[in-house]
Amino acid sequence: MITIVELIYLEETPKFLLINKQDPEAAHKAMEFYQGQYEIGSKLDEILKEHEEEAKISFCRGFIQMIKVPHQRKAFIIGILALQIIAGIWSITFLSSDLFMAYFDSELAQYASFIFMVADFIACIIGNVISEKFTRRVLLLSSAIGNTICLLGYVVFDRLAFYVYDSLKYLSVISIVLYGITYGIGVGPISYFITSEITSQQHRALIQSMVFAVNTLSGFVLGLVTLPAYNWIGVWSFLPLYIIPSILCIIYLYYNLPETKGREIADILRDMKRK
């Protein structure tokens, strides 16, 4: 409901106003609304240039080029892997009450689930602020590592609570809450826009749309299998579904993700080609 109310006050996108409506004045106003008064003219020129470049390349040609050209393929892979790290957040959010019912009665499990979602929500707000204060690479990798450690901590403490000492279940709950916080504070917000910062204007729309398409498919599959896997082998299911893939993704990103904050796209692409 809050999101719907907020949408009422949003301006139309500058690209739509400039290209589809052919209204430069409205596009200028919208650009100022979203990005302030800094270099609006040059940004609108970039939109026009991007549109002209996109018109020259068909989808099939652009897709083949994305696969063949090494730095474009790398940007595609980076985008997929960055989003794959956070794939578990949706399943865990949907199943949080079921997970907590392993420790508490139904009412307490609902409260714990509520705390998890509130913490995640607040962290997302903070994350959108601090993502502009710290370098993308450091914030994404550090929060991704913390995110994966928290999910691993949930598994470890859950098993220790079952076999060793029941009160360790509270550490398992805390681990899940911290998992939501580390998602919102860095890796969550950045993963959704990092692809746009490592691709040229000409190929940005195609590569980003393909990244989201793969992520949607991955999320759909994981959403289908998580609950059956959890019912089958319990918390161990999070190891092959989320933890091990996240570790592999982090390793790849560590060696291949360039810093993007405050840098020109030409410099970023040079780094992409060298790595």
Rounded mean pLDDT is 84
The secondary structure category is mainly alpha
Unreliable residue runs: none
The coarse silhouette is elongated
For the sheet with most strands, the description reads:
none
Q: Given the structure, what is the number of helices?
A: 13
Q: Helix-strand pattern, N to C? A: HHHHHHHHHHHHH
The number of strands is 0
Query: What is the end-to-end distance?
Result: 44 Å
Helix content: over 70%
Beta-strand content estimate? under 5%
Question: If you had to describe this structure to a student in words, what would you say it looks like?
Answer:
This protein is mainly α and about 280 residues long. Helix content is about 80%, strand content about 0%. The protein contains 13 helices and no strands. The chain has helices at about 1-10, 15-20, 25-35, 40-55, 60-70, 70-85, 90-100, 105-130, 135-165, 170-195, 200-235, 240-255, 265-275. The chain is elongated and about 65 Å long. The mean pLDDT is about 85.
Secondary structure topology:
Blueprint: H1 2-8, H2 14-20, H3 24-35, H4 40-56, H5 59-68, H6 70-85, H7 88-100, H8 106-130, H9 136-163, H10 169-197, H11 201-233, H12 238-256, H13 265-274
Helix pairs in contact: 2-3, 2-4, 3-4, 4-11, 5-6, 6-10, 6-11, 6-12, 7-8, 7-11, 8-10, 9-10, 9-12
